[in-house]
Amino acid sequence: MAAIRASCEECGDVELTTADVRVRVYINDNRGEYSFRCTTCAMTVVKPPEPRTIDLLVASGVAMNTWSLPAELDEAKIGKPITHDNLLEFHDKLHDTSSWNEALSHLLDG
Q1: Number of CB atoms found within 10 A of residue 44's CB
Q2: Range of the domain at 29
Q3: Gyration radius of the chain over CA positions
Q4: What angle do CA 36, 42, 45 make, to 5 degrees?
C-alpha cells in the first residue's frame, strides 16, 4: 500500500494509506475531489485537486467513484414555483385524517 501525504486545515501534514483516501470524479466535465478522514482530529477533509493529482492517486491504488447530476435537473420546469403557503396547505392536508378517510373509502368502494 502506498503512503500518501496530505494536509488537514487544523493539523497540518498527515500520513495516509490508499485505503484512507477516496477520489470522486464528476463524469460530465471530469472535475474531481479527494477526501480523507484526518488521522489526528478525525475531521473529514475534502479537496479539489488538479487532474494530475487525481491520476496519481488512482494510479497508486486509491478507490475512485464517478458521479453525475440527476437527469431530473435537465427536465423542463413547468408551472409556478412552490410557495411557502403551498407547503403549509400540503402539511395541513397530510394531518387532516378526514380527507385520508374519504380518499380511502373511494379506493375501497371503487
Answers
A1: 10
A2: 3-67
A3: 24
A4: 35
Which of the four pLDDT bands, split at 50, 70 and 90, describes residue 77? confident
Is 76 a member of any domain? no
Residue 47 and residue 22 in one domain: yes
Strand order in the sheet with 63-67: 44-47, 31-37, 21-26, 63-67
Query: pTM (2 decimals)?
Result: 0.61
Among candidates 57, 2, 59, 15, which has minimal Cα distance to 32?
A: 57
Sign, CA torsion 46/48/54/60: negative
d(CA 48, CA 74): 25
> For residues 24 and 66, is the Cβ–Cβ distance under 8 A?
yes
Do residues 38 and 10 both lie within one domain?
yes
